[in-house]
Give the backbone structure.
Amino acid sequence: MKLLVTGAWRDAGRFIPEIEQMGHEVVFLQQEKDPLPADPGTIEGIVGNGLFLYHPMEDFSALRFVQLTSAGFDRVPMDLAAARGVKVLNARGVYSVPMAEFAAAGVLALYKRTILFHNNQKEHSWIKLRDLPELGGRTAAVFGCGSVGTECAKRFAAFDMRVMGVDAVLGERPYFEKIVPVSEADRVLREADVVLSALPHLPETVHFFNAERFLSMKDGAVFVNISRGAVADTAALAGALRSGKLMGAVLDVFEEEPLPSDSVLWDMDNVLVTPHNSFSGEGNAARLSELIMRNIRGLNG
């Protein structure tokens, strides 16, 4: 198979010789926006991320296999891929651990008022806070119960939280007390102290968390978004935070990125803003390369 490998796989250079030893021909493209190093009509497989943002999939007439370095499929014309029988694989599981650790850390930071303590430290101010809230015994609602959602559930459960899941695919899974269909989302929101979005960016998930859903949340809930910015209506979220309906929010993704400098979210004391960084982890490179190589070996099976 003739494979186009892009710089989205940072460790590709270490593995290309092994791929070629399997009998594949490899052409390399560092920057996906640059001109292609080969006739797209001759490319049968791709390892990359946003290649189709710059080079239409229609041009790859021989394409049979796409391996993404991202967990999301939103940069691939999936309808066209399905119609042409192109197998598209994502980086499922590669980024789940650091994302889950980030989510747990953010919720703990809000519950334990670590920002306030840090500010007091800078001012050499010795002020105790009484009756800080605890996670134990509270309820977390995880929307999207795939790899990321499951790793988040695992960590919330470790804090003795009751974890509910909302997903299109039902069934029993570790760490979740129960997984319910999307039709029961509003009921779960009324019970949840922590609401976490691990939803993919799909037409049906755009503004899934809208003004009505924020209003239906339990008073004092914390909202966490580590999936895609478009799943939450920014204006509605800001309103729920300003009104005191929500205790706070942990936000790593936004409808517009970078987050505009004039966004009200920057200056809210009950909001943690990070620059789409929750996926970052020291084990990502090894996990990604292991997954890619396993899937490429599978092409010979």
The chain has two domains: 2-92+282-299, 96-273. The chain has a mean pLDDT of 97. The two ends are 13 Å apart (CA to CA).
